[in-house]
Amino acid sequence: MELRTLRAFVEVVRRGGFSKAGKVVLATQSTISKAVRQLEEEVGVPLLDRIGHRSKLTTAGEIVYRRAVKILLERDDLISELDELRGLKCRVLKLGLPPIGSGILFAKLFAIYRKRYPGVDIRLVECGCERLEEVMLSGEIELAASLLPELESFEWQDVKREPLTVLLPIGHKLSQCRSVELPALRELPLILFDTGFALNRAILDACRRHSFEPRIAARSSQIDFIVELAAAGMGAAFLPRMIAEQRKHLPIAQVPLDEAGTDWHIAMIWRRGAYLSHAARAWLDLVACTRGENHSGED
Known about the structure:
Blueprint: H1 3-15, H2 18-25, H3 29-43, E1 48-51, E2 54-57, H4 59-85, E3 92-97, H5 102-116, E4 121-126, H6 129-137, E5 143-147, E6 154-162, E7 164-168, E8 190-193, H7 198-209, E9 216-220, H8 223-231, E10 236-240, H9 241-244, E11 253-256, E12 264-271, H10 278-290
Parallel strand pairs: 3-4, 3-5, 8-9, 8-10
Antiparallel strand pairs: 1-2, 5-12, 6-12, 7-10, 7-11
Helix pairs in contact: 1-2, 1-3, 1-4, 2-3
């Protein structure tokens, strides 16, 4: 079993087709197709169920894909570690940041890092935390800021913990409360972030702990749009306290959420056991050194 055939197969699955995979690995579509067939002959079972111009993984294909990704990641880690040992230091930082909170937490750090390490090419990926975790496990990024994930697959370094604030239209019966428990919002529609944002998971899991499934009024990836929807009376929205406090000038009520297990706990994460380049370790060191200097609120 050769690495080239494993990589061809993995890219076919990732890119959703043979021609797109060929562009990634700089090979013709026929070469990619031949490599996948060779892999199928080696394992003795079909890996892709070909339906017209589309393909989907068979049960065996899912197993091979999962193992192949790990093998290729180990190979990449090995090459990176040996390159740095030989003095060919990594000049790229592949970093993932979520839309929620990155401006407050990382904009200044980004500028400091750029000034200290001008030769490092920072390749930034921006999406929700759940998607960032997927991208990291595929090896496309080295580090990501994410809500604290399941620790089985990741190692992590703490950045910030903040309670959530409920956003309500001014004049709502709960808007004058000192705090709000989640069951009090049972009859109120919720405004959530788009699919892929881990903050949704914390809210929905808490609702289920209280034995109710909330009505979803709207979803968006834009913080300010979510705030405006809540102000317009569409429902209740949720933001980490420090982000909500930046919007105190807006006509909206902000009430602390009194609900265990819903804190916004952001951390830098990386694949468990992965080799971290000097560029990545320098970023983690900078985050650790500045933690608490530029942030408000309790950890």
